[in-house]
Predict the 3D structure of the following.
Amino acid sequence: MNKKIVSKVVSGALLCSMIGYTVPVFAYTKDETVYSKLDVSGSCYKTIVSTHIKNKENEDVVKDMSDLLDIKNTSGDETYIQDGNTFTWKANKNDIYYQGESSKDLPIECAIKYELDGEEISPEDIAGKSGNVKITLQYTNKEERMVDINGKKVKMYVPFVVVAGTIIKNEEASNVQVSSGKVIDDGTKTIVVGIAMPGLQESLGVSKKDIEISSDIEIMMDVKDFESNSIISFVTPKVLDEEDLGVFDKLDEIYGQVNTLQSSSKQIEEGANTLKDGAITYSEKSKEFNGAMNQVSEGVSSINSNYSKIDSGINSLNVGSSSLVNGVQQLNSGINELETRLSSLPESVSQLYEGSTELNLGVNSENGLVNGISVLKGSLDATIKTLSTNITTLANTKNQLLEAGYTENDEIIINLQKQITIDTTTLTQLTSEQSQAKLNALDKGVTSISQATQKLEQGLGQLNSATSQLPTALTQLADGSKALVDGSKTLQTGASTLKSGSTSLKSGMKKLDVSTKELTSANGQLTDGATTIANGATDLAEGIYTFNRDGINKICNFMKNNVKNLTDRIEKLTELSKDYNNFTLLNEGNDGEVKFVMIIDGVKKQQESEQIKESVIFDKNDVEENK
């Protein structure tokens, strides 16, 4: 039930004895207060009805209907003429106050049960006893109605609210408690007030598991020499004001939004599943990338290790090229000296030929200078290719991380960019026109040396075999020697430049190796994070599914079915409350109000009273006090 409605029910019941309800203007309004005396078991033995006819139109004559007996004017000297159940009052423009007795059954019955220390006991036997006492006021709604709710006949009850109260002396009892009510202790006495709404649980059709609306009031206390004062129950059929029905107009708007809530909840569930699938895919791809990074790291370590060998070879090449220049220069001097010493030609040519053969082997053999340069070029080409591949891989990795939500300021992105810059710089150095020109010059010099040594060996061979052709051969030898000197110098220059570049490249390779290891470690952490995200997304999707299934769907179904049914029932209860506007009789066209005051006799000890029913006299003062 709506909390505001429950609040209204309770507060309205507590206040309706003090204030009246707004009613439309009729010829007159009939306000009845039904006073009933109940014995200690709850049986009614006397009922007197006090009636107030509100003569709003200031009529001289007021016609009324009543089935009361022994009707007496309790305020004023207005008289009446009775014709069966019709009473004609000579009102003289005044309100009419009268009372009479009734033998009709009350709409609410009250049964009283007494318990002492957990055992039920009769009211006669409990008087004067000590211990823990519980008094249970069991109210039964007798005003049953068959009404139409959404095309179905349903049993409902006129919505009576009962407020019961009594006063207990603190010297006679302690630890006073009440169910569904309030206990007020002023130091000398305790005022107990409880509330019950018999029949409302059934009328609303709600399960006690959802909300329990009590039909009983329980009063518990620890007593010594037990006695009780009268317990007064105030009963009214007025539960809701007209203004309370405005809440149902707002409920109509809520019903229209229930489908939107259910649809939106389903979209959230689908979005959570999409997030879960994406997170799982991201985790899997991150693991694949982590494997690739491990391979990259291993490759860079291998390159770094192998390049140390290349760098050592370049250093050896640089030293060898310097020795080669010296040797070629010496060879050239020897040739020049040969030209001046033709007399000793045979022996010198033979020695020179042997030297040229060894030189040719050093340059053109499998382990010679030409093959060494070829190996060097191949290693540099492989290094350039590896660096290009690494740059592409690192750039792709950076883009994937940026797409995954990382920013340019994240450490892993900064480290990736640093590595890309180092690799790009190294690659630029290796592939620059200057480097290529130097490498080409080196290759050209080696080629020149190769060609020169071949010519030298050929010339010396010819010289050795045919000294008659010595002048021509010496000329060719001199030319070859000169070319050899030029080529060896070119080789020396290229080897020196290559050494300088190799030193920088070696330093860059070391940095690349360190950075790649750091990147691989960071990516391992990223992979762990991706796994955590995937697990979290899976838990989120499962949680939203459970929330949607066990929460939103149930709420929506409850709103569509239970709440709508509850709304219709509350509106019908309001109609039943309006219709129950008198206890005796009421002329058609007039409005009425009725409330009940049930006074339950107190339990007294036998020596003070034989539990006889107390007499009751309701006079004008009693009526005025209970308005």
